[in-house]
Design goal:
The chain has about 190 residues and is α/β, with parallel strands linked by helices. Helices cover about 40% and strands about 10% of the residues. The chain contains seven helices and six strands; from the N terminus they run E-H-E-H-H-E-E-H-H-E-H-E-H. The chain has a six-stranded parallel sheet.
Length: about 190
């Protein structure tokens, strides 16, 4: 699997996804944007390169157009996830603009009819973003907004993050046990299960 991390809030989604795939021996490489590096320092207090330093996979910056994933001949069979996916990257995928390594790899993934998951992290959504989500989905991408659920009764922020990571793995067809699946239970104190 190929993981891309772009400059939207929620850098932790991409870092945890890369770590999880790495621990499953399924991570092929990580690509990150310059804006992701800035957001990582703000949100996580560390450089993104440092956060990804323990991975067993290569890490590329989005301007490294000589990296293997600039060509469709190197796109992994399992596909690609962009987590978080900025609205700029969403627009590039929606409109076929391959102006950096993330967009080139994402568009090559779609051309090969492989799975592409875009973890869009923006709120509120404007009409432009909604239209771009529709276009990206029509192009073959799975649009997976970073909208954590609460039926698994998260106790920490990490539980909420891992729920989204689990949903990405679901969309990529990868078995996992990262969160408790939905099941109807007896009504609890708030009337739900």
């Amino acid at each position: 699997m190929l993981v891309a991390i772009t400059g939207a809030s929620g850098i932790v989604y991409g870092v945890r996804l890369a770590e999880t795939l790495n621990s499953m021996k399924m991570l092929e490489a990580v690509i990150y944007t310059r804006s992701a590096e800035l957001v990582a320092r703000e949100e996580m207090g560390r450089s993104l390169v440092d956060l990804l330093g323990g991975l067993d996979a290569p890490v590329y910056r989005d301007d490294e157009l000589d990296a293997p994933y600039a060509s469709s001949s190197r796109i992994p069979a399992g596909g690609m996830a962009v987590a978080p996916c900025s609205t700029r990257t969403l627009a590039a995928v929606a409109h076929g603009i391959a102006d950096n390594l993330v967009a080139r790899a994402a568009l090559a993934t779609l051309r090969l009819r492989r799975r592409l998951v875009l973890v869009v992290r923006e709120t509120p959504l404007g009409l432009a973003e909604i239209r771009n989500m529709l276009l990206a989905a029509e192009n073959g991408a799975t649009v997976l907004p970073a909208s954590p659920a609460f039926y698994h009764r998260p106790r920490t922020i990490e539980d909420m993050v891992m729920f989204i990571v689990g949903k990405v793995l679901d969309a990529l067809g990868i078995e996992h046990g990262l969160y408790r699946r939905w099941r109807l239970e007896e009504p609890g104190p708030l009337g739900g299960g």
